[in-house]
Design goal:
5-stranded antiparallel sheet, about 15% helix, globular, disordered C terminus
């Protein structure tokens, strides 16, 4: 489900998915680069040679993960994943992508962008 919101200065897309895997497994898919690339290859949705960089700005394993999203020629944004266990042992995954003014978040305190640090 996609819900665009906001003014031209702020664009918000919201998605919700029910996944059959527990939150810990979904978290691994989001934080281990080899798994993430198989699940969400950045070049596929943005074309060959896309210049997309992500920096982790918030992480609460295995519940919440926020990235600063930078794409060449586009306003900065944030992508936030919220993982909630469901009654069947799966996960409700909510993804919110905000671009523009509302996406302004402070950079990570340690300025590290290595996703693998979260998998430890």
């Amino acid at each position: 489900m996609t819900k665009p919101h906001g003014s031209p200065e702020e664009r918000r897309l919201s998605f919700a998915f029910r996944l059959p895997a527990p939150p810990e497994k979904v978290w691994r898919a989001l934080t281990i680069p080899a798994f993430l690339d198989r699940w969400l290859p950045l070049e596929a949705p943005h074309g060959q040679g896309a210049n997309v960089t992500t920096t982790i700005v918030e992480a609460e394993p295995p519940r919440r993960l926020s990235w600063r999203w930078r794409e060449a020629g586009e306003p900065d944004g944030t992508v936030t994943f919220t993982l909630t266990p469901d009654a069947d042992g799966g996960t409700l995954l909510q993804l919110v992508h905000v671009r523009g003014l509302a996406a302004a978040m402070p950079p990570a305190a340690n300025s590290n962008s290595a996703v693998t640090m979260l998998a430890a």
